[in-house]
Amino acid sequence: VKSALLLAGCFAQGPTTVVESNPTRDHTERMLTFLGAKIIRKEGEVTVEPGGTLRGKELEVPGDFSSAAFFWVAAAILPGSSITVKRVGLNPTRTALLEILRQMGAQVQVVPRPGSAWEPVGEATISSAPLHGVTVEDTVIPGVIDELPILMVAATQAQGITRMGGVGELRVKETDRIRSMVTGLSSMGARIRSQGDTVIVEGPTPLRGQIVESFGDHRTAMALAVAGLAAEGKTTIQGSEWVRISFPDFEETLRAIRR
Known about the structure:
Elements: H1 2-9, E1 16-19, H2 27-35, E2 38-42, E3 45-49, H3 65-77, E4 82-89, H4 96-104, E5 107-113, E6 121-127, E7 135-136, H5 148-156, E8 160-164, H6 177-187, E9 191-195, E10 198-203, E11 211-213, H7 218-230, E12 236-238, H8 250-257
Parallel strand pairs: 7-8, 11-12
Antiparallel strand pairs: 1-3, 2-3, 4-6, 5-6, 8-10, 9-10
């Protein structure tokens, strides 16, 4: 919604200001600034001023952080594992998952690449380590909203309680991701439940292979596939074809890096 309003504001008479209660992704502001729009940013708001001239430029689209997240969590929960993702976007409004994994005890190394013109880019390495539960505050949720399903998988292998509050937006994605993840992980043996807009996971729990449902959601399918890596026995994901929405090569990539 913010992006749509900012794009419309480029062609409006007078300034257009979007006010946000918590910081959200700023890819659109960065891109518009790079292409010549007049963007003014203050705490809690972003404004498009009239009079800017958009000019086409060559730009690099960084690797998708949300797609990389599944492999980082896989490395974090599988003992002896480590994975490096190169040329991935490191926009600070998107990288909350890395900090959460660090707080949980995973080994996290980030190497920014200098000279990125409009979006921070670099590489990030995650290595396995004993994980412990954390509390993910409401204010952090906008920066990790798409990574919450795979973070729930990480929490099943962490010692203690992981609590994620203010995650109600998950109920209005391609499916109700709270329901799909609680259903899938519970059937695999995880101790996970929801209380309103809060998800609570008690770990660690040994997962067991199971037939689970994607509920027509690509991130649910990929998150449960990673859970299957840590489970004993075979995991079958019904509706796995929905992965093609965001990551057509997910299965091949997962197969290529599997131990």
